[in-house]
């Protein structure tokens, strides 16, 4: 997604988020598709955090967002190996683990929504606390 790539300076060839499209269903010409967001699920008991030998992978206690301290990451890829969603990657420029962090250091830090939410053409993506409909 270009908005994520631009806001978070993610180079071509890797992605923090993908929108997957299902196979068509229904009768032609009235076929339909389903779309799925594939990115970090910000696990409560994140295996990537548990396996990180340097503490670079962490859960922000205030927000619950799973993130990576670039300065602490040594690029061992343990977190990539244990991620059940296979959404982590090695950033080709920084050579450290990278993943969706809901634009924690960019948009969220500036009081905005994650780039994918702002750019979603159908407004299907939302961001907030699922237990708080006013968030």
Automatic annotation (TrEMBL):
<dbReference type="GO" id="GO:0046872">
    <property type="term" value="F:metal ion binding"/>
</dbReference>
<keyword id="KW-0408">Iron</keyword>
<dbReference type="InterPro" id="IPR050954">
    <property type="entry name" value="ET_IronSulfur_Cluster-Binding"/>
</dbReference>
<feature type="domain" description="4Fe-4S ferredoxin-type">
    <location>
        <begin position="64"/>
        <end position="93"/>
    </location>
</feature>
<protein>
    <submittedName>
        <fullName>Nitrite reductase</fullName>
    </submittedName>
</protein>
<dbReference type="InterPro" id="IPR017900">
    <property type="entry name" value="4Fe4S_Fe_S_CS"/>
</dbReference>
<dbReference type="InterPro" id="IPR017896">
    <property type="entry name" value="4Fe4S_Fe-S-bd"/>
</dbReference>
<keyword id="KW-0677">Repeat</keyword>
<keyword id="KW-0411">Iron-sulfur</keyword>
<dbReference type="GO" id="GO:0051539">
    <property type="term" value="F:4 iron, 4 sulfur cluster binding"/>
</dbReference>
<keyword id="KW-0479">Metal-binding</keyword>
<feature type="domain" description="4Fe-4S ferredoxin-type">
    <location>
        <begin position="31"/>
        <end position="62"/>
    </location>
</feature>
<dbReference type="Pfam" id="PF13247">
    <property type="entry name" value="Fer4_11"/>
</dbReference>
<keyword id="KW-0004">4Fe-4S</keyword>
